[in-house]
Amino acid sequence: MTKNLIFTSIFFFISILNSFADELNIYSHRQPFLINPFLEAFTNKTGIKTNVVYSTKGLAQRIQAEGENSPADLVLTVDIARLFVYEDKNLLAKIDSKILNNNIPAHLKSPDNTWFALSKRSRVIVADKDRVDINQIKRIEDLANEKWKGKICSRPGSHVYNRALMASLIAANGEEEAEKWGRSFVENLARRPQGNDRAQVKAIFEGQCDIAIINNYYFGKLKFSEDKTQREWVKNLELIFPNQGKGDRGSHINISGGGVVKFSKNKKQAIALLEFLTSEEAQKLYGKINFEYPVNPRISATQELISWGEFREDKLPIIKIAELAYKAQVIIDKVRW
Ligand code: FE
Fold it and tell me: In the predicted model, what is the mean pLDDT of residues 132-141?
């Protein structure tokens, strides 16, 4: 009887340990429809279950407030500056993983191995094929040319996507040139900056302007939208990867990424998920689900993405975009973008 009780207790104890070990709590700024397919594949492969807390903002503050008691194991987000906030608040663990080091190029992860890019998106130019001579637009800098006066639509400059783009211009050309560009760009706008990336495409379709800057995946989302009208929006659109010329720096990119929470009780499992997200299976999913590019240099982009034209990315260490975010915002305010 006593023996039985001991065995039962040991069994019970081990199953509690197991149940802890096989679950992973994710705090995510990425939308559920985007990450669920990845998590299902991960659970099928490893047996590790995942719980997701999804929120568009406030998760870093929440982890900070929870401190050592935080149930969070892993954070997933988009935009390098947002990711950098977690490092800045000292919320991430340093990870030593051969797989991550092997699958993610140095310019796409934190120098001290706290955060890692998992996919790339390019900020591209779209223009109406009939109303714009697209050979006249080769670089993001070209959008400052006065010949585009009244032709460009844009979402507000202070959105993270545009702030990151401005940071890339500071990195490439210096603050003074970046400000000059911003001033001329804003003078070329057809209307007050408003709406999201999709709204700019709609405005081109409606003839309010001819040119816009969007993240590449919105082109795919609209092209394959369930909504027939949205599919119409992109029919006459040309997608231009800027700064592709010989010797030019390449097209500005941003990332989605993640990191393991410093006080995570399931670090091993959290690292396993990060590693899985850089594997061939997951890297291909980013392209299929959301028209994003793989970070793993051994994995090629989807056929659909390749069909949009080959693009060379700006290899600027992505951390620079976060470091220059404040200066970028100062310029954006000055030029009233
Ligand atoms: Fe987006």
Answer: 96
